[in-house]
Amino acid sequence: MINDQVLTPVRGAVVGAITLLLGWWGWATGQGWIGNVRVLDRPQGDEVVLSLLTVLEVPDADHYVVGNSSLAVPVQGASTGLHPGQDVTVGGTVRDGYVEAAWHEVAPGRTGKKRLGFVGLALVGLVVAGTLRVTRRGLELRG
Question: Can you give the residue range of the structural domain that contains 141?
């Protein structure tokens, strides 16, 4: 059996490190360092890469909109072959209220990768559920 007093400082350090990482991640995302949430707030002329977003709309041959549930970025550039629901990566330049695309690349197979990620997450959940148990003192390792 594992001594709880030995694990207590380790648990505290791990919980503290995870809390700091999540706090930094949230702050960095809000600053626009991670992700695309504030891409249109960047200075005009900045080069950006909008990585693995979904095509939301294709109004005509020279315009399309990419994004996700919390983001929609208008893009000016050739939309030939694009249709709503496709996952794409777009490289271009920030302009006033849109991104001028220099290139775009369709990302086939992303749906399968997302499903594989969910399967992995479910497996981790099963392992954790099988390894820990809830007691009056909190979580304890089984066995």
Answer: 109-143
Better pLDDT: 6 or 70: 70
User: In this structure, are 87 and 125 located in the same domain?
Assistant: no
Q: How many domains does the chain have?
A: 3
**Cα(113)–Cα(125) distance, integer angstroms:** 18
Nearest CA-CA partner of 96 in 45, 37, 138? 45
- Residue with structure tokens 């920030």? 94
How do residues 78-93 score in pLDDT, each as one tens digit?
999 999 999 999 999 9
**Are 71 and 37 spatial neighbours (Cβ–Cβ below 8 Å)?**
yes
Q: Say whether both 52 and 23 belong to one domain.
A: no
Residues 14, 47, single domain; the answer is: no
Instruction: Tell me how crowded residue 35 is: count the other CB atoms within 10 A of its CB.
Output: 16
